[in-house]
Amino acid sequence: MTAAVPGLPVPRLVVWRHGRTAWNATGRFQGQLDPPLDAEGRGQAARTAPHLVAGGLVPEHTVVVSSDLVRAAETATALTGLLDTPLRLDERLREHGLGCWEGLTREEVAARYPEQYADWLAGRPVQGRGGEDAPAVAARALGALAELPEAEVAVVVTHGGTAGRLMEALLELGPEHRRVFGPLANCGWSELARQGSRWRLMRHNCTVADVPAPAPAPAPEAAASRSGTAPVEAGATPEEGARATAQDADAVL
Predict the structure, then answer these.
(1) Is 204 labeled as catalytic in the residue annotation?
(2) What is the H or E stretch that residue 108 is in?
(3) Are 171 and 177 in contact, with CB atoms under 8 Å apart?
(4) Domains with residue ranges and CATH for the chain
(5) Integer angstrom CA distances of residue 222 from 158, 219, 225
(6) Which amino acids are annotated as binding site, given as ranges?
(7) Which residue ranges make up the annotated binding site for substrate?
(8) How far apart are CA 16 and CA 32, in angstroms?
(9) What angle do the packed helices 70-83 and 39-54 form, to 10 degrees?
(10) Which of 90, 14, 96 is nearest to 55 (CA)?
(11) How many whole angstroms separate alpha carbon 202 and alpha carbon 99?
(12) What is the pLDDT of residues 77-124, one digit of tens each?
């Protein structure tokens, strides 16, 4: 079952995954451990933030909330520095807790916990790993958003697994529809808008090419240079199982 969707004080959400870490680059599961951004991750955040602003973020009508893990908070400051708006930190936006998998590579998990790894690749619930299950992740993330101040848009800076569970809950998708959406790349973002009583996915996994960032402008059409085309090897979460690469380790189902 999906978590019940509470009424949220914002009608538009930008769900933004943090930039790359050295652990992303080497295929190591992070979970709620706290490695910082690497040089490429800091560059991704710096390149992406102006595109988010150019997508119509107005400082006085925008709230920015982030996981308190350093890789997310550091990504968020690239945006709040441009908007000159405060950053809210909320531990409920942390990554999916992965129990005994945290700190291990995919190869190490496969060797130490082959049955768990097989379940994960097949999209089945992983038993005996510890950590959190998907509904709990969605529920805590929704709780964080329900307590935001009223605003026209909230930028939610979080992690690959948490972003996936949050969007599935907002779109009222059950476990049978998990993996319908590809995972967010490092510094990729998705946008959702409330229409009536339901949420609608407006764009997914937008990324910024490695080119000079544009000057901020209010026109939404000036935003992200690519949508839904980031290759998995760019640092997406390993939610796609066997199709993911060694660089993708961050979160699981």
Answers:
(1) no
(2) helix 106-112
(3) no
(4) 12-243 (3.40.50.1240)
(5) 24, 6, 8
(6) 17-24, 71
(7) 17-24, 71
(8) 17
(9) 40
(10) 14
(11) 33
(12) 999 999 999 999 999 999 999 999 999 999 999 999 999 999 988 888
Q: Which of 74, 95, 132, 239 is catalytic?
A: 95
Give dist(CA 140, CA 191) in Å, integer: 20
Residues 6+ apart with CB under 8 A from 210: 47
pTM for the complete prediction? 0.84
* Strand pairing class (12-17; 189-195): antiparallel
* Mean pLDDT for the stretch of residues 72-78: 98
Can you tell me the distance from the alpha carbon of 88 to that of 96, in angstroms, rounded to the nearest whole number?
20
Angle formed by the axes of helices 160-170 and 134-146, nearest 10°? 80
Say whether 203 sits in a helix, a strand or coil.
strand
Q: Residue 92 is encoded by which pair of tokens?
A: 């409920």
C-alpha distances (whole Å) from 106 to each of 94, 110, 161, 194, 244 are 21, 6, 16, 37, 10
Query: Phi/psi of residue 248, each to 5°?
Result: -95, -5
159 is catalytic: no
- Give the list of residues 6+ apart from residue 14 with CB closer than 8 angstroms, or none: 52, 55, 57, 153, 154, 155, 156, 189, 190, 191
Q: Give the residue among 220, 1, 231, 250 at the shortest CA–CA distance from 109.
A: 250
pLDDT bin (cut points 50, 70, 90) of residue 251 is: very low
More confident residue, 13 or 219: 13
Cα diameter, the chain? 51
- Specify the amino acid at residue 199: W
